[in-house]
Amino acid sequence: MAMSLLLNHPEAMQKVKAEIDSNVGQGGLLDESDLVKLPYLRCVINETLRLYPAAPLLDPEVWEEPTKFKPERFEENLSDREGFKYIPFGMGRRTCPGAAMAIHTVSLALGSLIQCFEWEKIREEVDMSQIFVLSLSKSKPLVAVCSPR
């Protein structure tokens, strides 16, 4: 979902790419130790999890413009749990024990794909429609072209 959103929002893709280039560069691959230097990448992941959680949680009383992709909403406080607004992995005793590992894994995977490749949409807009099976999933797979940077 995150790559689909970034392809539909080229300004956010450029911002993540610039952040990776300025903090990691093209000389080596993105490493786990680099993730602390990439706050906007984390904002993109947080916003993706907010927009496409396992269960729908887009309450307009909680989020301003809830259906819009705006990673900047997480720039001030990456772990905004004020009033339990952002809880993609649950909360309290029922929180997911793999949450930190999941965030690190997604950050490394998405960051590496952005660092190593230029991405282009095949169509005007990437289809973001969803189907509900056991969780929300894209109804059509992402179709994009990548080329080495």
Automatic annotation (TrEMBL):
One MF annotation (Gene Ontology) recorded for this entry: heme binding
Keyword Transmembrane helix carried by entry: no
Keyword Cell division in annotation: no
Sorted UniProt keywords: Heme, Iron, Metal-binding, Monooxygenase, Oxidoreductase
Cofactor: heme
Entry binding sites for heme: 96
Family the UniProt entry places it in: Belongs to the cytochrome P450 family.
Protein name (database record): Cytochrome P450
